[in-house]
Specification:
This protein is of the alpha/beta class. It is built from 14 helices and 24 strands. The strands form 6 sheets. Strands 22-23-1-24 form a 4-stranded mixed beta sheet. A 4-stranded mixed beta sheet has the order 2-15-17-16. The longest helix has 14 residues. The N and C termini lie close together (4 Å).
Length: 421
């Protein structure tokens, strides 16, 4: 099993290109199931999660080809030959459940294993299922699978989500575009990935309005066509690399970065004393003070502070000048990285969904273990600022969400390498 070695080496300086958004691409790929025509996605990231979704779609009968060093995906589901999404594939990634809506919409039947993914809480799919039932689907949970049928097709409905859910919003959008009549999604997610999915579906012929707001209206159509769509920049990767010069010092430009995708993070970084500037090519981040100021963070749905940047922010706060409080409101059990940061000399107290971090003068390198995608990269950030060597094990999590991380950080002067295990 691979691990990553990081040696604290002072400030970082250089440029880092931002990849296409993993979470956007994983919602866009199942849209190929809605049409017989090819769907071409450009700026696709090169990640193991994308490979998992590729395998899943191929198991359903879709053909997927890759070009331009894996940055262009061509997906064609002219013939759906299988409507069962097997446990062996779905267990690897929670986003696999996004094939449920389009399979039902196009074929009237689906059998999808309950999903897996990172161990950051239960994250039930009940909102997906309740929404599909409102569209007329008949569902049963049997032997770890969701058995869904809509033999007479789906029909439009008004669905009010009791909680904001990105995945449920995406799944219901993918289902409703081919439903009979009009569907209204209330308390819908506002994330940029939702808008990106809506843009792609509109280009395929869907009738969608209100994306980016809490109420999305979808008028079902008889069929969709293929299209070519560029995946938006990955705001979580972008935010992660923005925190690299913040914790290690230095000056880094994020090529393709957009402030509107990470406004809440920019506000917090600027409150710590870090400088964030818009450039012709993206965003430039630099740390001008010898020590950053502490800030408090509460994770919230977009446009609030992303839960997927909470672990990275915790790593940053470990060397701040005072005490900070991080409150996690999206997922339970998402402070597992705190225990590993303690091994590096951090001062962190966790109680329920709140972590109190008291900044220390410096971190110390240590052997640590990754528990999920974002936790793994938070330990790498900590290693950039630590004295000595940090070895992060179980980095297969990292490969699900970060493309060429070692190469990108090395180009800015970091001492980082992958150790093949």
């Amino acid at each position: 099993m691979d691990s990553i070695r990081v040696v604290g080496n002072g400030p970082l300086n250089g440029r880092i290109p931002v990849a296409g958004a993993k979470n956007a691409c994983l919602a866009l790929m199942p849209a190929a199931l809605l049409t017989e025509d090819p769907l071409v996605l450009t700026n696709a990231p090169r990640l193991s999660d994308i490979e998992t979704m590729t395998l899943l779609l191929e198991s359903l009968g879709a053909q997927v080809s890759v070009a331009d060093q894996s940055r262009t995906l061509t997906l064609c589901a002219q013939d759906i030959t299988n409507t069962k999404a097997h446990y062996d594939i779905v267990r690897k990634m929670r986003a696999s459940v996004l094939v449920l809506g389009p399979l039902l919409a196009r074929t009237g039947t689906a059998r999808v294993s309950l999903p897996g993914g990172c161990a950051i809480g239960a994250r039930p799919v009940n909102l997906h299922l309740q929404g599909l039932e409102a569209l007329g689907a008949r569902l049963e949970l049997r032997n770890g699978y969701i058995d869904a049928r809509a033999p007479n097709g789906l029909r439009g409905s008004r669905i009010n989500f009791p909680l904001v859910s990105v995945g449920a919003t995406e799944n219901l959008m993918l289902a409703a575009v081919l439903a009979q009549g009009t569907t209204v999604l209330e308390n819908a997610a506002l994330e940029p990935e939702i808008v990106d999915l809506a843009d792609c579906l509109r280009a395929m012929g869907a009738r969608i309005a209100g994306d980016g707001s809490a109420v999305i209206e979808i008028e079902g159509v008889d069929r969709l066509r293929g299209t070519r769509h560029q995946v938006i920049a990955d705001r979580i990767e972008m935010g992660t690399y923005m925190m690299a010069p913040a914790i290690a010092g230095g000056d880094v430009e994020l090529i393709g970065g957009r402030r509107d995708l990470v406004e809440s993070l920019c506000d917090k970084l600027e409150a710590t004393g870090v400088v964030v500037e818009t450039t012709d090519d993206g965003l430039r981040v630099s740390r001008v003070n010898s020590r950053i100021r502490s800030v408090n963070v509460v994770t919230e749905p977009f446009p609030g502070f992303p839960t997927d940047l909470q672990a990275q922010m915790m790593a940053l706060m470990t060397t701040a000048d005072d005490r900070s409080v991080l409150t996690e409101t999206i997922f339970e059990n998402r402070f597992m990285h705190a225990q590993e940061l303690l091994r590096m000399g951090a001062d962190i107290r966790v109680q329920g969904g709140t972590a109190t971090v008291t900044g220390v003068d410096h971190l110390k390198g240590a052997p640590v273990m990754a528990t999920d995608i974002r936790a793994s990269v938070s330990l790498i950030l900590a290693g950039l600022a630590a004295r000595g060597e940090t070895i992060i094990s179980r980095v297969y999590h990292l490969d699900r969400g970060y493309e060429r991380l070692e190469e990108k950080l090395s180009a800015c002067g970091a001492i980082i390498e992958r150790l093949n295990g």
